[in-house]
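Here is a protein:
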Amino acid sequence: MEVWIGTDNDRIKLPITPAVLGVDRSLDIDAESVVKLGEVDTSNGMKLKTIDLEGFFPKQDYSFASNNMDPYGYSDKLQGWMYNETVLRIIITETPTNMLCKIKDFNTREQDGTRDLYFELNLIEHRPKNIPRLDNNGNSNRPISTNTSDTQRTHKVVKGDSLWDISHKYYGKGSIYKKINEANKNKYPSLANNNIIYPNWILIIP
């Protein structure tokens, strides 16, 4: 398993797989009181996902580490992205995680005299604003997707897309992204090894 974080032109691989790696998902649900019925739930959709990572940047030359930077080099890089509110992409190989995000919290400390730099990193999902415009009659100008037996649906990948997001767009459920992966393996053989997609790919939506 590898953890990659960064932009298209500037990214890093964490030198050691984090000891703690968690993804939090939650639904935004409110409770409302209805006369003679009591409380009912109302949903406002999914909250932004968060990812928590805990580990260390090694100063020592450990055999299991793949570091090519000083511990404080990693720290400075992550701090710069956080202060500039840079939109990043985190990819965790061997998992479905391939998500646009920003750094919400980043804490570091030295603790055992080795000069290894321990860190706690909290990432929050970045969801681009895509609000449909309304015409003068209040109708949405968002294109309506059609799905007929005579027309094969396709999706042109743009920067920031992931299989999870595309699956959620077309099926209303991101967790079935493997359906799209399987349908496009012949056209894009790299999908047999991972879920990474690239701008301008034309994906079949089965």
